[in-house]
Amino acid sequence: MAFYITRRILVAVPTILALIVFSFIIMYLAPGSPFAGERPLPEATLANIEALYGLNRPFYEQVFRYVWNIVVHFDFGPSLVYRDRSVSEIIAQGFPVTLTYGFLSFIVAVSVGVVLGVVAALRQNSWLDYLAVGVSIGAQVLPNFVMAPILVLTFTLWLGWLPGGGWQGGELPYLILPVIALSTSFMASIARITRSSMLEVLNADFIFTVRAKGLPKRRWVLRHALKPAMLPVISYLGPTFVGLITGSVVIDIYFSTGGIGQYFVNAAINRDYSLIMGITILTGTLTVVFNLLVDIAYAWIDPRIRY
Amino acid sequence: MQPIPLTRIFTLLISLIFTLTCTAADIPASDQENLAVEQTFTYRMSAEIPTLDPQLNEDSEGYDVLRDLFEGLLNQDSTGKLAPGVAKEFQSKNNNQTFTFLLRNDARWSNGDPVTAHDFVYAWRRAVDPNTASPYSWYISLATVRNADDIIAGNKPPKELGVKAVDDFTLEVQLDQSLPYFPEMTTYATLFPVHKATVENHGIKWTRPENIVSNGAYVLTEHIPNEYHMRKRNSMYWNNEATVIDTVIGRVINDVNQALTRYFAGEVDYTETPPGQYPNLVKKYPDEATSVPNLCTYYYAINHTESANPGLHDVRVRKALSYAIDRNLLVDQVLKGGQYPAYNFVHRATAGFEMPVIEYSSIPQNELDAKAKDLMIAAGYSPENPLTLKLIYNTSESHKQIATVVSQLWKQKLGVQTELVNYEWKTYLQIRQTQEFDLARAAWCGDYNEASTFLDLMTTASTSNAGRLSNPEVDRLMAESKTLENPQGNYTAVELILADEMALIPIYHYTSVFMLNSQIKGWPYDNVQKNWYSKDLYRIKN
After folding, report:
1. Of A49, A167, A252, which is closest to B133 when you measure between CB atoms?
2. E strands of B289-416, at which residues?
3. Are residues B312 and B245 in the same domain?
């Protein structure tokens, strides 16, 4: 296992380096300039700005300097659009916000989703099953860009219970709507995966055996059925978790949270090269790390899996 | 030798002294008793502003914040006219090529330091310094401040800029050209002063709430990027006693529909409205929904270079295309925000501008359609030999609707086949810059409230001349207009040439359409550049 983890980490380094280089090339090839506007800049002005950011240097030198600054100084450079701030600062400000609502959404989605799925499977074809399946399908077909305005119209405008946006350092009233909007569809997917996986496990021979041995229901469900039923859920959770904590542009746009998702999209629209790269590297690294964690979790849950 | 005209001699000799009337929240007696206890104003910003550094700013919402935090030589009043800022009065000499500003001696930075002419000199030099790399350095070139171009190009040091502090409270500016509207230009952020010690001590972090030192009516107290800015009144501001609003909050709400919902929930006092909703809103909320002229013109640029369809080089075709656009239909049925059909380039509300009489503006649409058809036939186009055009626009629902309607009108009336191509903003700019189009959607907003801000665009030298029009007579008239006491005649002549040549297709003059809480008073509805100052607002009880 230790060897496997070491090997995976060693593979992760060139993977991330390749990600940096490829992203840099794609970005470089994209048409448009971060400094283009309705009024094209005079040549001298443009030259000054390009010199400031080193964009007048040869391409290979730009890539090398960029990677060097990250590896040696952990410096992602200045934002080309937000001139008062560096990329590291923007990430340091936006990422905790996204991490908070992403993590909470993850907890909500997993706990509600798994409970719904398990209950539906245990009471298959009962009204509870139909209710759970109905709720999860309903939630699945309501994407967050529909949920968000509906929630604001209901809880902000109509009932006046909760603020329609903002973050205020993550105070509870500001968290509720973004977390509901973000977690709903993930919760629905988790519920459906859990239900079908649970149904499969419930029909397995070893469950018949433990039931025949007369184990109390709570014990065989929690100890014997739930664990193997979680395998497909876990493989879904790895990328989901990364997706949730690296930002949802919809949540950031509708709830003005100041999270990283909005920055990412704006960076691409504005051609803010250094910010695009910074967030890409963050997302890429988290994806690699969480995929590794999921693989380790697999081995822990299912003793048959050995690396 | 040509004799120098007498008027010219007079303007050379006589220095004009302008004194200005002070502005502040102007509260009528009826409202004095009725002022709200909590004087706050909260407004919606559509995006996080890129910078709070006045010399680097190029964003209109950034300028909204900067007008509160900093004060330049002059301000604008509720109608857009000049009002004193740090300068009490100014003199123009040497045929509007030398301006002397007399600064008040009671202006203070928020840390208590006096605001002096040296602060302006420092800020202006900083704006053109290649090391600052300001994307708005062109603004100082546009103002023709002496040596600006050479300094930006790195050929002269910043200290050669044509601005000097004669003493602590006298600032003298040398321009390369006569520029009667130079004082208007000093109301923009690029020419605001900055506090040298603060800028130099904190680097790019000098604009953070904990570091910033500013001289406007407000100071920045909180700034959470992409969430909100908060500013509170500056006790050191020279006219702080006249300020009424204590706290101003700008909330970033990207989606305009969401902004309107939050407006109705009472979370913001001001927001722009989603396109097309004005008629309903004004019916339901007549005290809050507003449409006022805004100094921008929407037009289709015609590609005048070789890369365009050769048909567009024929003035008859250009005229036919313009005539066939039913602007009233677009304004009334598509835009629905009180916009004005446009037949000329300069926005009708531009200060001191007399609208030219454009012949085809008064002809009924059905007659224009008939003329357009005749012109197309005369130019050799017919259903069997249709004109095909590529019209580009940047991705936006509104641009798409307009382009779709226009292309349908052209198809029905003239048989023109139009290929509509949309690009996201930065790609669109590149395609437009490289002239890969026949017609391109474009819009221009005045940098200052004077007609040349529009018409200079149509000169050969302008980098923003999207269609690359090059008309020697337009160039001559615009160059000459800078030297004239009253350039209106030249402006009219240029507009008539543009219409006669149909050098571009004007479509509409903008309005600003917004909701404003009826408790907020003092809003400058007549300021066509939407330059509001929080210090001039106040809030009454519900």
Report:
1. A49
2. 289-302, 340-341, 388-394
3. no
